[in-house]
Known about the structure:
By secondary structure, this protein is of the alpha/beta class. The protein folds into 5 domains: 2-44, no CATH class; 57-77 and 488-590, Luciferase, Domain 3 (Luciferase, domain 3, Roll), CATH 2.30.38.10; 89-103 and 137-352, Rossmann fold (3-Layer(aba) Sandwich), CATH 3.40.50; 381-451 and 453-483, no CATH class; 594-674, GMP Synthetase, Chain A, domain 3. 35% of the residues lie in helices and 21% in strands. It has an 8-stranded mixed beta sheet, with helices on both faces. The chain is globular and about 70 Å long.
Amino acid sequence: MEAYKDRILTWLERLAQGDYLMGGNNYGILGAITLGIVIPFLLSTVFLVKKKGKQRGVQVEVGGEPGFAMRNRRFDKLVEVPWEGATTMAALFEQSCKKNARDRFLGTRKLIGKELITANDGRKFEKLHLGDYEWITYGEAFDRACNFASGLVKLGHSPESPAAIFSETRAEWLLAFQGCFRQNITIVTIYASLGEDALIHSLNQTQVSTLICDSKQLKKLAAISSSLETIKRIIYFEEEDGATIDSGLFGDTSNWTVSSFSEIQKLGKESPVNPRLPSKTDVAVIMYTSGSTGLPKGVMMTHGNIVATAAAVTTVVPGIGKSDVYLAYLPLAHVFELAAETVMLSVGCPIGYGSTLTLTDTSNKIKKGTLGDASVLKPTLMAAVPAILDRVRDGVQKKVGEKGGLAKKLFNLAFKRRLAAIEGSWLGGWGLERIIWDAIVFKKIRSILGGHVHFMLCGGAPLSADTQRFINVCLGAPIGQGYGLTETCAGAAFSESDDMTVGRVGPPLPCCYIKLVSWEEGGYTISDKPMPRGEIVVGGPSITLGYFKNDDKTKEVYKVDEKGLRWFYTGDIGQFHPDGCLEIIDRKKDIVKLQHGEYVSLGKVEAALISSNYVENIMVHADPFHSYCVALVVPPQKVIENWAQSAGIEYKDFPDLCLKEETVREVQQSLSKVS
Length: 675
């Protein structure tokens, strides 16, 4: 075998020098292709190299309920701060702003123009023409936050009363957020998409006296103003197009004081107030979750909780620093984006703001022929939820399929070769071959997100193995897949950049321990073979205080052990791999016993059915008094319409098409096939 390998290597060496292809030692483009593609292709049939795994987590003895506990292998002691003295969000912000005073911090695109486009069905769509990013420095951001804090006090806001932020993600959101901390004001965060009942509940329960919002939310607030019991002041972020606010929006009887964000900053600049800084145990945020059932719950996060998660993530994202650029577009009212931007603040990284509707050149609100946020900013770091990555994958695959022919074959070959390199099944990846494939196949795909992304943070929901591999190959970027909850301040587990496995969420972050506790009823125990299994319980400084004004629920899922360490019982079921990485395999609430006594895991059923081409989103519901499940399916409009056209089915509009017996039968057959 060794002699056989030597003969092949000798032949390949001569082939690379052009002896067979070009009759001499001229390399040229054919020689480069030979060296870059043919040689590695042949070598991969002889030398199969599997990357050796490494230990990423180690077992540890902890207090509390017995279970199988792990910690991050690199840290014996739990991480609580990014550096000494940065124990609160206020301290972290001030110290980072002073350290990076002259560096870019917050960027917003200039609005050049907007127009309304009328579609064929008569609906109107707003299209934006956006220019370059305009930046403020860390030093300028600190000054503006301090001015806003002083302005709040001068306006009459008492630091003992919480303030709420009800807005889409933007630079002013973060400035208002940090400004409130200068006066130790607790912030209530609310999704901009939250419904009226949930919004009223959140504001009344926390007795918010000052509400900070973007101007688009003012009409929504006007409609529910009579139901809001404690609001006294409204502060709105101005729109760049200079649109004025209707002074009579809230009626003549309203007792609310309505001011713009810039007016409050000006007031504070003219009348500065000494800061009233928090401690690490003070409540920084009451974050209202969307709530899977019923009204949303407010999770109380201390300053120490948020700082601990940010400090931990900075230790696992490779080489992160001020030379990076981060594209922010996810909701800051969600713990995932809030944690990500706190990480960027910690390392002095610039943050450029965008939105899901303006992210790429083909996004819904981008005027045709102009550039999306990613093309202009060219970020090196991004956070994403699986749904967005799924859309990127589906969009690319659709375009490749439409081109067909040689282009499709070339893409499939390049994808297969790069995938083999990533999974370590052949010799090292061969740098020249990678360069060639990148130049002729993947460069255009990477340009969708600016072409410079070298690391992606993914969280919020499970990421499919197919999508993870697609992003690894086509964007050339590792994905740090995270697992965490609002209750753990996003901090729990995080996959490392050199871990190319799929379906796992990595080892525990260094700010926490993760323990598996047996769930006998569900059949998951820590003595299971080949891997211990059980309910995931997270403990450490990132664990939040509990639910606002909901002691019963807090006592149900939060526990403090004999050493004073706080634990949160997630309700998720996981298993630990031998290398210390966690895999989420089930959820206690997802398991429903049907009428005949069999258990059904709703999450597993959804995961199977969503692989159908006719499913864009799906929810499976089960009732113990029935013998079957029900699936509510959202179909992808273009796919269904293309099928209808090929099948010769006539219809008025998409809702009409969805109601036709032929469509229902086609989708049902697809669901039966994938299940």
